[in-house]
């Protein structure tokens, strides 16, 4: 006689071991990214003698394009194939990266390595986000995303600092990228052996989810339209995420070069490169949880405005102490925004199409790296680095004001149910969403390919 398998349990306490393991895995994903933030801008300048800023930022452009595209497919693939296979594919894509960076004979190899880095980050980071959302359930998503993003960006910061120290002691290559190889080996091993599939948790939540106009299975085209422009909270999150990573691309590619203009040492540049993501990472431990209590919208709006002020201060400053203070403010603003945007996407999206909604959001968000590399590089070549920073500061402030005017509060306990808003009713009438009278059940299966439009 056989007994039915117990239904998956939702919540951080019920899934503490797997959730903690995924936090560790995401820290390793962040470490791979952090190994480039101090060293690659200096490689472009010192070893490959790329005089034009636009040319020097091509690796960020390649990273941003490949990561944005991969994010989109990560959500769809995780629904079709399961979360764990996508996570493993992300780690597999990273295997050649350290060797390519260490032995690159020309800048084209660096660009190619960053295409693989974008695929790695798009698959692995996106999947750890989706898996944590699966496990956490509806009530503590802000805390879950805060823990996830804190782990990733604290690892970015620690690795940026460590690679600066290694580069100062042993040179720009190969020592910093041996650390990258260690992260990849450990991350792949932990994911293959210990991480468990979480798609069943999403099935369980979908089966018990309250039906509404935005419930049921949507086509990928419908999800893309909702997240990109039709649904005010989802699209507001997408534009804010894109602008956030636009200014992060600027920070990654041009700040180390700006800092060298006053004769800062490699160790000091590494410290500044680490300070911003360190505050960003630590701050998310507080802001993600606080958004569960006070709502998502205030953190998103205030965070974007704080980033704009910080960028203006960096453009005005000239010296380690002033730049350090501005980097702290930039990190604090980003900490307010980053986990809260992901939580707001999860608040609105139904479990049957949530993974794809996260993928589309991350498509737009990480497209900001590419946009930032192009914009910052072109403006810096034409008018200088400080002018490029001013332009990005203005865009960041505009993004915060747009979120303030367009976005509603998404937290299910603090805001209005989005299914009752006029925008959702209009979307139903325009057949963007299945209506509440549809015969399709709210708990459509996540198995198999999504229906086509």
TrEMBL record:
InterPro entries, per database record: MFS, MFS_dom, MFS_trans_sf, MFS_Transporters
Provide the transmembrane region boundaries: 12-33, 53-74, 86-103, 109-130, 151-171, 177-195, 299-317, 323-342, 388-405
Q: Where is the Major facilitator superfamily (MFS) profile domain?
A: 1-199, 233-453
Lipid bilayer topology? Multi-pass membrane protein
Q: Where in the cell is it found?
A: Cell membrane
Task: Give the compositionally biased regions (Low complexity).
Answer: 433-447
Q: Which CDD domains is this protein grouped with?
A: MFS_MdtG_SLC18_like
Question: Which keywords does the record carry?
Answer: Cell membrane, Membrane, Transmembrane, Transmembrane helix, Transport
Keyword Cytoplasm recorded: no
Q: Where is this region: Disordered?
A: 430-453
- Name by which UniProt lists this protein: MFS transporter
Which species is this record about? Answer: Actinoplanes oblitus
């Amino acid at each position: 006689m056989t007994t039915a398998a117990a239904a998956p349990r939702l919540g951080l306490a019920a899934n503490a071991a797997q959730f903690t393991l995924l936090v560790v895995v995401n820290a390793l994903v962040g470490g791979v990214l952090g190994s480039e933030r101090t060293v690659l801008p200096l490689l472009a300048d010192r070893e490959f003698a790329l005089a034009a800023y636009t040319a020097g930022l091509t690796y960020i452009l390649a990273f941003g394009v490949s990561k944005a595209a991969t994010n989109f497919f990560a959500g769809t693939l995780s629904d079709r194939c399961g979360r764990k296979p996508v996570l493993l594919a992300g780690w597999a894509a990273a295997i050649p990266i350290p060797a390519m960076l260490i032995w690159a004979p020309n800048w084209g190899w660096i660009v190619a390595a960053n295409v693989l880095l974008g695929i790695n980050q798009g698959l692995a980071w996106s999947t750890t986000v989706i898996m944590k959302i699966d496990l956490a359930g509806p009530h503590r998503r802000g805390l879950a995303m805060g823990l996830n993003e804190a782990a990733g960006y604290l690892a970015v910061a620690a690795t940026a600092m460590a690679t600066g120290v290694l580069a100062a002691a042993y040179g720009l290559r190969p020592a910093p990228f041996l650390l990258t190889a260690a992260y990849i080996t450990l991350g792949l091993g932990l994911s293959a052996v210990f991480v468990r599939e979480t798609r069943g948790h999403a099935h369980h939540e979908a089966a018990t989810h309250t039906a509404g106009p935005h419930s049921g299975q949507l086509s990928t085209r419908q999800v893309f339209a909702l997240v990109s422009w039709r649904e005010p909270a989802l699209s507001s999150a997408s534009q804010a995420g894109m602008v956030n990573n636009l200014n992060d691309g600027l920070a990654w590619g041009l700040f180390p070069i700006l800092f060298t203009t006053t004769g800062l040492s490699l160790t000091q540049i590494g410290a500044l490169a680490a300070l911003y993501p360190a505050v960003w990472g630590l701050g998310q431990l507080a802001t993600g949880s606080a958004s569960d209590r006070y709502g998502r919208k205030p953190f998103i709006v205030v965070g974007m405005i704080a980033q704009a002020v910080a960028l203006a201060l960096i453009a005005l400053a000239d010296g380690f102490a002033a730049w350090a203070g501005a980097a702290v403010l930039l990190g604090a603003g980003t900490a307010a925004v980053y986990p809260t945007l992901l939580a707001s996407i999860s608040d609105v999206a139904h479990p049957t199409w949530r993974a794809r909604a996260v993928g589309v959001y991350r498509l737009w968000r990480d497209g900001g790296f590419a946009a930032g590399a192009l914009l910052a590089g072109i403006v810096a070549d034409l008018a200088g680095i400080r002018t490029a920073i001013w332009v990005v500061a203005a865009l960041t402030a505009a993004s915060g004001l747009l979120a303030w005017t367009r976005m509603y509060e998404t937290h299910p306990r603090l805001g209005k149910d989005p299914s009752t808003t006029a925008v959702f009713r209009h979307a139903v009438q325009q057949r963007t969403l299945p209506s509440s009278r549809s015969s399709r059940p709210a708990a459509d299966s996540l198995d198999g390919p999504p229906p086509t439009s």
